[in-house]
Amino acid sequence: MSEETQTRPLIDWSVAASTGAFLVRSGPAVPREEADLAVTELRELTIEAEGHVRELTGLGAGLPLLPGEVVDRPGWVRSAASGLDALTSKSMPRSQGGPLAPLLAGSAGVQTGVVLSFLASRILGQYDPFAGPDGDGKLLLVAPNVVAAQQAMNVPGKDFRMWVCLHECTHRLQFTAVGWLRDYFADEVERLIGGLAGTDIDGLANLVSSLPDRIKEVRKDRSFGLAELFQSPQQREVFDRLIALSTLLEGHADYVMDAVGPEVVPSVETIRERFTARRKGGGIFDRLLRSLLGVEAKIRQYAEGAAFTRHVIDTVGMDKFNAVWRSPNTLPTRTEIAEPDKWIRRLHG
Question: Can you tell me the distance from the alpha carbon of 74 to that of 268, in angstroms, rounded to the nearest whole number?
Answer without folding.
Answer: 30
